[in-house]
Write a structure and sequence with these properties.
Strand order of the largest sheet: 2-3-4-8-5
Radius of gyration: 23 Å
Number of domains: 1
Strand content: over 45%
Number of strands: 8
Length: about 150
């Protein structure tokens, strides 16, 4: 009886592992700057740890330096990684700003069943600590960054 119990436990564990392997999850988050101040800044485009893009050594017309997390609807930023660029757009870092965040999660199992959830949120006000820049245009200034 003990051997039968162990064999049954092994079969159940194998079935659970197989089911877990057939589960596919996708998650996609989109951040967009809906309101903010219009800016033109220069800096260096780099890849962010989460797969997005960041503008480092960003200088505005007054010469203030900082960094921005870049949001863009097109995929043009990948062509400018490592380049010094001038970016125009809406910044949600000081004063009035509004960010929209939308996250879509999709789970699919081997038999084809699919479950999709969507979460939307909005952040308004003085967004200090959230230096997002909604990219409207990109102009390359140099092929390398200092």
């Amino acid at each position: 009886m003990k051997k039968l119990g162990c064999a049954l436990a092994a079969v159940v564990a194998a079935c659970c592992l197989t089911a877990a392997q057939d589960l596919e999850k996708k998650s996609q988050t989109k951040v967009s700057v809906e309101d903010g101040r219009s800016v033109t800044v220069t800096g260096c485009v780099a890849r962010n740890a989460d797969g997005g893009y960041i503008l480092t050594n960003a200088a505005n017309k007054e010469g203030d330096l900082g960094s921005y997390l870049l949001t863009s609807d097109n995929d043009d930023l990948k062509n400018h990684v490592g380049h010094r660029v001038e970016i125009s757009g809406k910044a949600a870092d000081q004063g009035k700003g509004k960010l929209k965040v939308e996250t879509k999660n999709e789970t699919r199992v081997a038999d084809g069943d699919k479950s999709t959830t969507t979460a939307k949120s909005e952040v308004k006000g003085d967004l200090k600590g959230l230096p997002y820049l909604g990219v409207k245009s990109v102009k390359m200034l140099a092929a390398v960054c200092p």
